[in-house]
Amino acid sequence: xxxxxxxxxxxxxxxxxxxxxxxxxxxxxxxxxxxxxxxxxxxxxxxxxxxxxxxxxxxxxxxxxxxxxxxxxxxxxxxxxxxxxxxxxxxxxxxxxxxxxxxxxxxxxxxxxxxxxxxxxxxxxxxxxxxxxxxxxxxxxxxxxxxxxxxxxxxxxxxxxxxxxxxxxxxxxxxxxxxxxxxxxxxxxxxxxxxxxxxxxxxxxxxxxxxxxxxxxxxxxxxxxxxxxxxxxxxxxxxxxxxxxxxxxxxxxxxxxxxxxxxxxxxxxxxxxxxxxxxxxxxxxxxxxxxxxxxxxxxxx
Length: 301
What we know:
- By secondary structure, this protein is α/β, with parallel strands linked by helices.
- The protein is built from eleven helices and eight strands.
- The protein has one domain: Rossmann fold (3-Layer(aba) Sandwich), CATH 3.40.50.
- The protein has an eight-stranded mixed sheet with strand order 2-1-3-4-6-5-7-8, with helices on both faces.
- Strand 5, helix 7 and strand 6 form a beta-alpha-beta unit.
- The longest helix has 26 residues.
- The model has no long low-confidence stretch (mean pLDDT 93).
């Protein structure tokens, strides 16, 4: 059984600007501690940019560069090449971006970097909407969730960006949650040991945007994993899938019930979401089983 990780070094200073109870800061603290001090961060406009603070000030004890919202992957690519030109090959470059700057506005840039297999780690803090500008929907927002721009509930599904990134054939894609910290730390360590484009996405329940009490962030993140709404898995080289939590004992109704953004959702919508999640879970289990099975030998011609 995995033990809780040790307390991380203070690479995220106290007095940062995260909302009270936000697990964005908790996840960032452990990611930074795992990457270590020889790291440079690229942070586009996002909740994390607010937490880090306006340049030239920062709550991070590493260098931080804040580019435009659409340019994170390009900035990370340029920073990586500049460090390599100086012989600083061991310095890690990490992007901390939200889902708006990853799933939507920054996706063209990210996809191009992944096509080139640029050597950086990209971490998406996925709170499933544009939360620091009024909680509008993004393409990461799940179906039926109410947001500032979908007051009656979103009518389309959440984009499956981890699988899209895996389709680029990059070395490593993983989903993570602060509710499962040992798993999160292990995945960051694994990403740190590889080269090329590594994509990690962390579910961050937004207290205000999701309609949660200040102390419900971790509980909600845990329910997301236990219901299969946010499964924890890894995809290596675009092919090998590993499912890290292999059961989903909780119905989706439990997960929806603690969120204000789903208040009043009807039973038919709950059933539709359950069917959608069950289908995605079954496909994920099939891919994981196929990855674990020994491959048949191909006869030589």
